[in-house]
Structures are given as C-alpha cells and as structure tokens.
Amino acid sequence: MLKFRTRLILSHLAVIVVILTSVGFAAYWMLSRAVYNQLDAALLVVAETEAAVLSSSPYRAIKLNDTLSGSDRLSFARIDRLIQVVDSEGKVLAQSANLGNTQLPVPANLSAMFANSETVFETLFSFGDEPVRMVSMPIDRLDTPVIVQVAGSLDDVHNVLNVASLLFVMMTLGLLTAVAGVGLSLTRKAFQAIENIVQRAQHINEANLNERLPHPGSRDEIGNLVDTLNEMLDRIERSFEVQRRFTADASHELRSPLSRLRTELEISLRRSRDPSEYHETLQSCMDEVERLTLIVEELLVLARMDAGLERGSTETVSLNAIVEATVKRMQSMAGKRDVQIIAEPMPQVVTNMAYGSVDLILTNLLDNAVKFSPPGGRVSVRLAVTENKAALSVCDNGPGIDQDEQQRIFERFYRGSVASTRHVAGAGLGLALSQAIACGHGGYIEMTNNDEGGSVFIFKFPLVR
To answer: Per-residue pLDDT averaged across 86-94, rounded?
Structure first.
C-alpha cells in the first residue's frame, strides 16, 4: 500500500488537475464564444451595410460594395467577405467577385425568414477549402423581399482557438509542475518532522521513560502533537513509577509478616516446648496469617477496581442505617482502646451506592480514627447535606497529619510519620482503597486538620433525588 505521504501528494495533484481542467474547459468555451461572437458581429455589420445601401437606392440595379473605391483616405474595411443577394425563390441577384462561379447555399426556410424578418447564422463545414460562417438577413426592397448573405472564413477563429488550447495546455502543465514541486517540498518538510518524532518515540521504552520528544519550536499542529505526546509520556511515567512503588511496597509488606512467621516457626521447632508456649506461638502465627490475608484481599480489591471490575451493583440505600450499624460494630474495638464513638444527630439521607462499599469506607475511616486517638479520646460522625451532595465526616482528636504528608495519605502503602513512630498496625492500604471506592461511585474523600487538634476525613458523594 502506498505511503500516506504519497497518497496525499497524489490526491493533491488529482484535485489540482480537476480544477485546472475545469477552468481550462470553461476558459476555452468562453474564448470560443467570444471569438465566434466577434466574427458574427463583423459579418452582421457587413450585411447591415449592404442592406442599408440596397434599401436607400430601391430603383437602382443591385450592386455590391465589395471593392474599395479609389479614395486617398486610409481604410481598414475588410474585403475578404463573401457577399451574395438572393430573392425569395433563392435566385442569385448579385454576388461578390471573390465568389467566382460558386454560390453560397440558400437557407431552406426562406418563407419563415421573410415572415419573421429573422436573421440566421449558420456554419458551413463543407463549403470550399475552409469552414465558413454565414449570416442571412432578409430585407424589403420595392416590396420585393431579398436576402443579403455575408460569409467569412473560420480559419482565423480556429487558429486563435488552437493557439489558445496550446497555451492552456502549457500553462496547465507548468502549473502542475510548480504545484507538484512546491507540494512535494512542503510535504517532505512536514513529514520529516513527523518521521523524527516517530523515530524518537520508537526508542522510548520502560527503561527510559524520562526522555521526551523534541519540540519543533512552533505552535502549529505538529507542535501541539508533540506537546500531547509528551504529556502522555508524563502520565505513563507517573503510572509506571506508581506501579513500581506499589510492587516494591507490596513485596515489602508481604515479606515482613512472612519473615516473622517463618522465624517464630523455626524457633518453636528447635526444641520441645510446653503446650502453652506452642499455643502462644500458634496464636502469633495466626495473627500474622490474618494480617497477610487482609493485605492480599485489599490488594485484590484494588486490582479489580483498577480493571473496572469491582464497582459493585448499586442500590438505593439509607446512609443513616449504614452509619448506625457500622458505629455499633466498631464500638467494641473502640472500647478496648478507651475511645468513644459518637454519631451526632443527622438528617435522613438516601444515596445510590453499593451497601458494602459505603460500609467499607466508613469502617476504614473509623478504624483509623480510633487507632490514632489517645485513650479517653472521642470520635465523632457527622452528616451534612447540600443541594445535590452529602458529606459524611469522621473527626478524631489525635495528633493530626502534617501538611507535607496530607497529599500522600491516599497513596497505596503510604504510612505517615505518626503511624511509623507509634507502630500503629496497618499496611497503608485502607485510605487508598476507600478513595478508590469513593471515586468509583462518583464521590471522593478529602482530609483536613481540626483547629482544636485531630484529623477530619470527609466522604462526599451525590444524593438521590
């Protein structure tokens, strides 16, 4: 298949050929009409002149003015016209000397011409050695109708048209050559820039995603294309970086409990122990297994959400019922940490989401709030309603989150400095999972610090009207 560059040039030339051909035919037709009209006008002038002479001298014998009188004045009058006068029966009454013994053909519809006083133009292709153009004009002379016929050669007309045709062909070929040359040069220049972009793009892979395509320096379509491709490379690089970091963090989070699990099992098998010691070791191993199971389940949910497979079937649910059930379930864990969870009075809110999704988001937010609240602390759950959105807030009175860490708390496996220094349990997936679920249902989670201390996580989502 032809290259796009070749197809573009050929298409361009085809359009130019069609345009020039159409213009050439139109110009040729107009020139032909103009030349023929000029000849017809010249013949008609001669015919009218002869008719005027015959009409002004009705008693004189018919005589044609086909020769110049012996005048000293300069005259450009044409004497190469063939002139003939015939009566109503087609009999020749007079003719110019240049006709010799030849007669101009008489029109077949003489009666119609005399009746309508119609002047007729016709072309004689087989008269003499050259094609001839003839005009026949009826006049009345002493109540005797006669026809004045004037003919002229079409040789000059055909010569003009032939020269014009040759000129049109030469101009068309010249224009095509010029247009083809200019088009080829411009196309080569434009596609050379594209080929440079393609060659550079072919050398960019996952190992050198930091490289970018060279910008041509112009703000035209090619410049916009390069900007768009570079922006796409930026997004791809960020995605690869997130994927690399995610893989590294996942490997680390899975390796740590597996290492601890293996170490405890190896220590337990070095010598015989009491049943209570075995029970303690097995309980510790069970805790590590549960932590591994939770991490794997959250990773699977995130992977399915990334693939668009975990949004869940939506339904019209009462947010008040979900808040009440989730707060009641979390009270036991909060009580062990001497933290109180309080659901403040809230309006009735109905939303179109999956029940399990809302429950998981609220559970993760409450779990974080309880873990980071000091003993005797308090976690508040509030609900505010605007015109078309609802905002579910979870507030704690813990240490809060530093400003420079707030932009990263929703990243996968990210754990803030407070979580690391206090050795708070968790893998850093809860907030990332909650944010992904919220975005999948048309909402989002944002975070801020309380003026009095602590953090506020706000889950905003659309209402059902």
So the answer is: 85
The pLDDT-based confidence of 68 (bands split at 50, 70, 90) is very low
Break the chain into its structural domains and give their ranges.
Answer: 221-306, 315-462
DSSP one-letter string for 257-291: HHHHHHHHHHHHHSS---HHHHHHHHHHHHHHHHH
Q: Would you say residue 34 has pLDDT above 90?
A: yes
Domain 221-306 has CATH 1.25.40.70: no
pLDDT score of 403 more than 80: no
Kindly report the three-state secondary structure assignment for every residue of 96-145: CHHHCCCCCCCCCCHHHHHHHCCCEEEEECCCCCCCEEEEEEEEEECCEE
398 close to 454: Cβ distance less than 8 angstroms:
yes
- Can you read off the two tokens belonging to residue 432? 């990332």
For the full predicted model, state whether its pTM sits above 0.90.
Answer: no
CATH of segment(s) 315-462 = 3.30.565.10
What is the DSSP code string of 330-398? HHHHHHHTT-EEEE------EEEE-HHHHHHHHHHHHHHHHHHSPTT-EEEEEEEE-SSEEEEEEE--S
Which amino acid belongs to residue 388?
Answer: N
The two three-digit tokens of residue 218, written as one number: 């112009």
* Secondary structure letter of residue 89 according to DSSP: T
